[in-house]
Inverse folding.
């Protein structure tokens, strides 16, 4: 089965708020790009070239449609304006382990660019670029039912809903 972009979502939280808030999604995410690279230098020797590589460098960006009243977009805008570090999770909603957690990349980042694009015939888009600090970590993250539903509603039955579910 191929991995599809629709199944990979981003969650965010301002780092200083990690004791008080759950991570949040941006509704209507359209795309993100997460690229890792290393610089490389070649030194010629009598025996052939020897390569030396640098630290991991990231090129990370995302785009979403601007939802009016979005608390998450406001949080990201405020983090940009106040130069605050954010936490980001890149979560694969289809890669779940036996404990019910989802495969994820976790990183600390600063928002280095915040752009609203408002074409007269299209929805407003918010594009962000991130400066990743240190090296991201791979692991498994919890998605609450609210977080899962915020990016895609679940199936509901035809009978009326009771408080018990």
């Amino acid at each position: 089965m191929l991995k599809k972009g629709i199944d990979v979502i981003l969650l965010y939280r301002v780092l200083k708020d990690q004791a008080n808030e759950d991570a949040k999604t941006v509704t209507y995410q359209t795309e993100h790009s997460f690229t890792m690279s290393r610089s490389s230098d070649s030194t010629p020797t009598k025996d052939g070239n020897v390569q030396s590589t640098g630290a991991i460098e990231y090129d990370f960006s995302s785009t979403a449609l601007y939802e009016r009243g979005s608390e998450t977009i406001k949080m990201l805008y405020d983090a940009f304006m106040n130069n605050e570090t954010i936490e980001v999770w890149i979560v694969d909603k289809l890669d779940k382990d036996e404990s019910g957690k989802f495969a994820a990349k976790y990183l600390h980042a600063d928002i280095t660019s915040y752009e609203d694009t408002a074409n007269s015939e299209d929805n407003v888009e918010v594009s962000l670029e991130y400066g990743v600090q240190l090296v991201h970590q791979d692991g498994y993250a919890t998605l609450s039912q609210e977080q899962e539903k915020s990016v895609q509603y679940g199936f509901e039955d035809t009978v009326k809903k009771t408080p018990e579910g």
In short: The CA atoms of residues 69 and 75 lie 11 Å apart.
